[in-house]
Amino acid sequence: MILFKNTDVPGVIGDVGQILARHHVNIADFRLGRDKSGLALAVIIVDNDVSDIVLRELDALEASIFVKYVIL
User: Fold this and answer.
1) Total domains in the fold of the chain
2) Helix (H) or strand (E) holding 33
């Protein structure tokens, strides 16, 4: 799964989806929570391994605060 913390601005979900699609990473589940201070946290369950390149692209998004790939 990918943990993705970001500023809560329009377009972030689309940007994340485009990056994952470009690298052929399929999203099994996407959960998003946000708070009143303007921050959001996504938990993205994926069907494929996630490369460091994908993580760097996600982290390079302007809204990105924190990106972590977790294998449970």
Assistant:
1) 1
2) strand 27-34
Residue 38 neighbours by CB under 8 Å, 6+ apart? 7, 8
Cα separation, 46 vs 57, whole angstroms: 16
Domain span including residue 24: 2-69
Helix (H) or strand (E) holding 55: helix 52-60
CA angle 19, 53, 4 (to 5 degrees): 60
pLDDT at 16: 98
Condensed to tens digits (0 to 9), the pLDDT of residues 17-38 reads 999 999 999 999 999 999 999 9
Residue 64 C-alpha from the chain's centroid:
8
> What's the predicted TM-score (pTM) here?
0.94
| CATH number assigned to the domain comprising residue 24 | 3.30.70.260
